[in-house]
Amino acid sequence: MINVKAIPFVEFASPEVGYYDDLFKKMGFKKMLLGKNAKRASGEVFRQNNITFIIYTKEFSEQFYQKHGPSVPSFSFLVDDPQEALKEAVKLGCTDVSPRSYLPAVEGVGGSRIFLEKETFSSPNKGVGLKYIDHLNPPLYQIYENKIEDERTGVTHVLKNISFTIEKGETVALIGRNGCGKSTLLKLIAGIYFQDSGKLRVQGRISPLIELGAGFHPEFSGRENVFINGQILGLSPAYLRKRYDEIVEFAGIPQFMDLPVRIYSSGMYMRLAFSVAVNVDPDILLIDEILGVGDSDFQQKCQKKLDEFKIKNKTIILVTHALDIVKSWATRAIYLRNGEVVFDGSPAEAIKMYQTDVDSERQKEELSETHLPFSSFPKLESAATWGQITQVEGQTSESLCQMLELNPEQPGLRMVFDLCNVSIGEHLVFRLLNAEETVILFEQDASLNDPASESLSGAEHLFYHLECPDLSNLAQGEYHVRVLSQTPNRQEVTLLQFKLMIHHSENQRGLINLPFKIEVQNALPA
Amino acid sequence: MPSLLEFNRNLSRSLYQRRRIIWALAIRELKVRYKGSVLGFFWTFMNPLLLMVIYTVVFTSIFKTNIPHYEVYVFSGILLWNAISGCLNDGAACIVQNTALITKAALPPEIFPLRVVLTHFLNYLLTLPLLFGFSLLRGLVPTTHALQLLYLIPIAMLFMLSVVLGLSVLGAFYRDIQYLVNTLSFALFFTIPVMYPMSILPEKLQAVLMLSPLTQLIQMSADAFIFGKTINLGMLTATLGMTIVFLLISLLIIRKFHTRIAERI
User: Residue A435's pLDDT band (boundaries 50, 70, 90)?
Assistant: First the structure.
């Protein structure tokens, strides 16, 4: 059982998407995750003043209440400090904050609940009250947090529905993201952890190589540590004596064997530890992230040793993030995601799946970061004769991008960014892409710690003016413009993103628009 | 849950299989203790020696005790008490302190209480020659009754093991146990006849204190070594009885918590 720390939060059951937009504005939130994103997830999370807010949609809340008692779409706060929440509610203009709304049962989760009476916020659709009445059965919150399965006992099931058999002689790699349960599974097999339910059968002697140098004592010499560590790994002193020279030779540090391990470099330490470890002679070898010790020379030696295990038809189960090892070495791969087996089979396919997942997740993260409704430039559409801006999105609201302006006469635009939220050292990048976002048509960046801005650093506010005065060379069509801040290691955060439509009065074709003249003359030019 | 008998059998087997590791760890622990200090082993009896001097001075000059060989009595008592209290204090902490060996090297947690008892009593055995030397120096020649220590010490070890087994597991689950045991063992010291002989207490109090197996152990060892008496069979039976009771309790505790230890440390 692993305890899950509860998060303080405020929750809203929104009668419909976007219904509380105004309310949030009143509360002064900078970020709003409402809108189309709220449709996607059953619970949206964002933070304000160290309180996490969770918003869910009407459909969700209805399902929710069907399960948990008769109620109507409601609106409630769940916060770590009820007094604070009360104040917040009063600030919002709630005249009647019902004291009976405290739910002591939920306090264990990290907050208590208050709700606002219908006089304050009534649903335009139904016109009914907003009470959430289920005092006896506080909701389960596993929907919000993958890991929280049962808020009352604080239990997390790290592994679920796992079922597989590994035959003798197989080399199986367990792959998956951090925290997906790989190591837990390995420790279950090793007999360190015990499953809550289900059966696990192991035939044969196991050597878990989960950490190298278990039992190494810094004060003892390398020699003494070889013996104690070897015995911990299950080797007999007699056997260790016999193999001692070989171990020392393999580690390649004979001159240090009588010195205390504490003076070893970490590389030497790991080499010695590994040299002892490879002497185990189990039926099943469990390896957890210990490959990749020492320099390339030593790595080759290790690889050879491990190959010997394979040749001897030992069963090997390894956990690693080194996908090339998985590809080249394993005969089978099990891909775990959130404690469940997603794929079990050929390593190449497992890796492909894993990588696709990682990529798509990254994309999703980027999406949820960047796709925020942005409604501050409503007049732009009609302002210019040559084009328009549609779908303005960005990381920030008006507080960062102070102005976005189209030149009314000819294609060109100007924007002003408030730099107080961008850390020094980042680059501000202006990027123009085609509609499919496959080609960067134009990019320009400016370091934010250049002398010009540094000389201004005393000022309270710095504003960055970006101007692209002439876009008339762009062909008619749709373009995407992004302004992003880029850290020195090339991580990007989109500050502003919009679609730019350009139309020319002339009938123009091709990819670009060049100044072009065609005349008819009756004589050759001079 | 397996039956207690079955559980006991499995546990014993798993411990027996690892007897070499337990021994190696106990020896290592002893070496660690004396490694890097100039006087090494000397420190083991410096503390008892100092205490012995203090108690002897206090009791013979202030309380005017006139027990023969009082200083030898105190010294032998403190040496045994150090082993006992060492078992208790280390026992409560031993599983937590060896997290890496349990969760990474897959050693069963139950080997650590065994190691603790082994370490402390090995240390005690090493100090015994000194005790003999000291007693000869003070003119107390141990009689053949002292040979009773040969089975008394294993019994003491067994009793300590029966306590420490359960204590170590509880200590892994509730960290407070360590502090509790530290404090408690200090208090326990005053209830056992180390700095005073049993005979100076009122009889009623004696009867109460004699219920404690620790008192019994100290008393029996003093009987064998100092007073040259045959050990009271009733007392011995009582100690063994208590050992069995504690062993049962410890087994119940281990059986209950066994599967969760690795997760909690």
Answer: confident
**Count of CB atoms within 10 A of residue A526's CB?**
3
Judged by a CB distance cut-off of 8 A, whether residue A366 touches chain B is no
Of the candidates A214, A220, A236, the beta carbon closest to that of B101 is on A214
**Alpha-carbon gap, residue B87 to A140, rounded angstroms:** 46
CATH topology for A171-362 is Rossmann fold (3.40.50)
Q: Which of A152, A168, A464, A181 has its CA nearest to residue A315?
A: A168
- Contact between A254 and B144 under an 8 Å Cβ cutoff? The reply is no
CA angle A39, A30, A366 (to 5 degrees): 55
CA-closest candidate to residue A463, choices A403, A512, A410, A405: A403
pLDDT digits (tens, 9 = 90+) for A45-98: 333 433 334 444 444 445 544 554 433 333 333 344 445 555 555 555 443 343
Return the domain boundaries, chain A.
1-156, 171-362, 380-502
User: What is the mean pLDDT of the segment spanning A179-195?
Assistant: 86
Confidence of residue A476 (pLDDT cuts 50, 70, 90): confident
Res B89: pLDDT = 94
- For residue B257, the tally of other CB atoms under 10 A from its CB is 16
> Distance between CA A327 and CA A140 in Å, rounded?
41
Cβ distance A252 to A298 under 8 Å?
Answer: yes
Mean pLDDT over the full length of chain A? 66
Rounded CA separation A190/A233 (Å): 12
End-to-end Cα, chain B, rounded Å? 22
Rg of chain B over Cα atoms, rounded to whole angstroms, equals: 19
Residue A6 C-alpha, separation from nearest chain B C-alpha, in angstroms: 19
**List of chain A residues whose C-beta atoms are within 8 Å of the C-beta of residue B29:** none
pLDDT band at A400 (very low <50, low <70, confident <90, very high): low
CB atoms within 10 A of CB A392: 20
Contact B104 A227 (CB under 8 A): no
Residue of B28, B258, B260 to mutate for A, most A C-beta atoms under 10 A: B28
Q: Is the ipTM above a cut-off of 0.85?
A: no
The one-letter amino acid at B23: W
Mutation target for B interface from A187, A192, A206, A285: give the one with most B CBs within 10 A: A192
Q: What is the spatial distance between Cα A455 and Cα B148, in angstroms, rounded to a whole number?
A: 89
| Cα angle, residue B140 at apex, residues B139 and B143 outer, rounded to 5° | 140
Chain B CB contacts of A214 below 8 Å: 100-101, 104-105
pLDDT at A430 over 70: yes
Q: Is the pTM of this model over 0.95?
A: no
> How many whole angstroms separate alpha carbon A302 and alpha carbon A286?
15
Q: In the predicted model, what is the mean pLDDT of residues A204-218?
A: 83
Looking at CATH, the fold of the domain delimited by A380-502 is given as: Immunoglobulin-like (2.60.40)
Nearest of A10, A120, A8, A2 to residue A56 by alpha carbon: A10
Structure tokens at B1: 């849950």
Q: What is the dihedral of CA B97, B98, B103, B105, to 10 degrees?
A: 160
Position B220 pLDDT exceeds 90: yes
Contact status, residue A382 vs residue A376, Cβ threshold 8 Å? no
Q: Which residues contact B8 (CB under 8 A, 6 or more apart)?
A: B251
B108/A288 Cα distance (integer angstroms)? 19
- For B213, the token pair is 């197996």
